[in-house]
Amino acid sequence: MVAEIKKEKSLPVWLCVILFIVGFITVSGVLTLFVGIFIGSDHLKIFGQTTMLQDILNEGCMFIGALCVSSLLLRFCENKRMDSLGMGVSGRLGDIFTGLIVAAFIMGGGFYFLLKLGDIRIAKFHFNENLFLWNIVLFILVSVTEEISFRGYILGRMLRSNMNKFLALFISAVIFMLFHLGNEHTSMLSLLNVFLAGVLLGSTYIYTKNLWYPISLHFFWNFLQGPVLGFSVSGMSTKSSLIHIKHSSNMLLNGGNFGFEGSLLCTLLIVLFIVLTIWIMENREQNKRLHQGIQDAELLKDKVKGEE
């Protein structure tokens, strides 16, 4: 009887996803509007970096929107707490480190190959300590907000509905791509890569239900791509970067003004890591099932002996 009541209270998964998207856009949009009205550009100039601070405040509003809407939907539609999103930190230091390694390999490897091929060249090095720190804050907000939204709530909600994990991963990646349609300098290839990035970011979540690997990968992906290596990030130029680059007209390889995410080389690297990640995670799952099967067999054997 209790199970039936809980089932009735739970809204269909498609409706939950729509409610989240509409709620997220509405709440973050209203918050951004109020911040713009009450703070104003004159107050922002006190901090020196007007545009950067505006970006951070906008992302802060989106973070609050994602947190509030996901929390409300979890509580009132599923009777679940925020920890259902997968924010538990216990034993997740390895996930954070792995996210750094994967991002460094994709971005660093891509940068190296483009440099060797002559499709980019280093123009100069420049370090602005203040902007570097602001960029850290900005991209932490971006990664946490988007991972809570697209992996934590949307993908997580579909998985909780017992949808096939690969279908759920595909749908969440499509939604992730659609949210980037309005970015500047988009192309069919860049949108494909954003979709593939969504698959890569969710490729461990469908097994672990934990967000720290995708958050880490997302943060270091953006941070290394923009503020360190000097590419645009999803069509948006960064305010300051450690390395300033010039790229050739071969946008198919270097991604042009969209950034490295618009590159065919990036496509190949993402696909490589998707295949590698899913292969590793599937093997882990099989080993777990095998180990659990052995344990169950031993328990059954002990039980039979005890009855004898």
Label this structure with key terms.
about 300 residues; mainly alpha; two-stranded antiparallel ribbon; disordered N terminus
Percentage of residues in helical conformation: over 70%
Strand content: under 5%
Mean pLDDT: 89
Order of helices and strands: HHHHEHHHHHEHH
Largest sheet: 2 strands, antiparallel
Residue windows where pLDDT falls under 50 for at least 5 positions? 1-8, 44-49
Give the distance, in angstroms, between the N- and C-terminal Cα atoms.
38 Å
- Main β-sheet, spatial strand arrangement: 1-2
Assign the structural class, choosing from mainly alpha, mainly beta, alpha/beta, alpha+beta, or little secondary structure.
mainly alpha
Number of helices: 11
Q: Radius of gyration in whole Å, from Cα?
A: 22 Å
Shape: globular
Number of strand elements: 2
Folded structure, characterized:
It is globular and about 80 Å long. With 308 residues, it is mainly α. Strands 1-2 form a two-stranded antiparallel ribbon. The protein has helices spanning 2-9, 13-44, 50-77, 93-117, 129-160, 165-178, 188-202, 205-208, 212-228, 251-254, 264-307; strands at 120-125, 243-247. It has a domain at 91-303. It has eleven helices and two strands.
Write the layout of secondary structure elements.
Layout: H1 2-9, H2 13-44, H3 50-77, H4 93-117, E1 120-125, H5 129-160, H6 165-178, H7 188-202, H8 205-208, H9 212-228, E2 243-247, H10 251-254, H11 264-307
